[in-house]
Predict the structure.
Amino acid sequence: MNDKEVILISSKKFRKRSVIAFILFVIFLAGTVFAWKWIHKQPDMAGVPQPLRKVLNTNENIFSNFLTDKHLAETYPRSAAAKRVRVNGDIGLKSTLDTMAWKLKLVRSPGDTLLIGLADIKALPKTELVFNFKCIEGWSQITDWAGVRFSDFVKKYHLNQETHMNYAGLSTPDDKYYVGIDMASMMHPQTLLCYEMNGKPLPLNQGYPLRLIIPVKYGIKHIKRIGTIYFSNIRPPDYWYERGYDYYSGL
Amino acid sequence: MNFMNHTLVSVNAFWIRHMKKAEKKHPLAIRWLHWINFPILAVMVWSGLLIYWANDIYRMGWGDKTILRFFPDSFYKALNIPFRLAEGMSLHFVFMWIFAINGFIYVLFLIFSGEWRLIFPNSKSLKESLLVVLHDLHLRKSAPPQKKYNAAQRIAYTLVIFMGLGSVLTGISIYKPVQFRSLTSLFGGYEWARIEHFTLTLLFSLFFLVHILQVIFAGWNNFQSMVTGLFILPSEEEILIPSSVATQMDVNKNEPINEVQISENNSLNIDEIIPKKNNSVTDDPDKKINPDE
């Protein structure tokens, strides 16, 4: 192994071997170009060529299998939290909001909608969370939030049946922004229906009166100004998924 | 040639055949894994750029002084990078599998074939690599003796394996920082893992550039050896094939004879081409060479 292995080979045989090797080589290189073009010619599935989308969905199956409630995002002391919290996106917040009239629409099943006021939500056990908020763009910021755990909310409103479904769908009151989230992530102990930031009520641009804080997901899933929550066994529509992003977007 | 006595008794005529001497340089598996990695790494770097653009905060400099911004707008514009984050992510998280699996098989192959001995640096490599670099820069006439790879190559190729591992691990740290939280903290947290992942990409690009230049300087024979596996050595060897054997091998139809192994001291192992038992001589007088002449 350590010594060079030297062979004798006739010119003719070497030429033959070279020709075969280079033909294969060129076929391989052409094949990669062809595969690349083929992928991009495939019909789009939510903004992504179908073969790529299928792999992304497989990634979800792989990684969601391993996510448990014991996987917790790292938490920090409140002093580590940013005072000036980055604002990134106002889709679904542009229409005027009648703050006095706002109520959360909880759709337990089609035709069975519960309206819940902010005071009722604030009356539930409060959970504080300082964690590193991660945007899909690549930046992150340690921020300070408080609200009710979605799992506590589920207990209070007896949503056991509903949470046996595969997904929860959330949308803004004007339905301009909407997300779909797998139930395991929704029921994760760090997932909050959040009404406070830095110890004060959420500012309007951070989703007053109620937003989602879900540390196991990128920021695109932390929907601001929740209007409706509903449950579904198939994937609820998702704003950024429709624009080519990963549906799961899990961390 | 000292094998004459060996066969003189039974053979009185030989064919002459000019044989190329070639070093079996790159095993088939290495060649495939290398060439698969080439387009995959390109896709990973390219899609990585599409992702990085969305939060392109890294720069070189101190305080407010920036010497080099990653990357200038002209660079993005020339490559049409802006506003393609979703596309970048979809490519990155698909081709990552091929990159990781290909790299994993490569490492397994190195280990189980013993090739790692030819690639991993040894105790002399650090010192020798300096001499190699000086030689490459034409500052020194001779280069230290080497086996398959010189000392600088050993260090570079070993580093690049660890860079690949680093890219996979820092990549996982950014991709799933909650699920792989301890891995992420091992790299200093989410933000640091991202910086490290980015830096490794720059190093990969640098390696790629130097690699391409070195391949161009090394010439065709070196390049083709990564495709054919054989590195042609300068000296040719004439071998004498006893006519009896040559007839059996049907030399008249100009069939190439089989590869002949040369033992360590570089002398022909005559046993491999001349069966001792064969005594029959059926010569074609037009093409034979009589060793007695």
Remarks:
- The first helix of chain B runs from residue 4 to 7.
- Confidence is low (pLDDT under 50) at residues 1-10, 250-257, 261-293 of chain B.
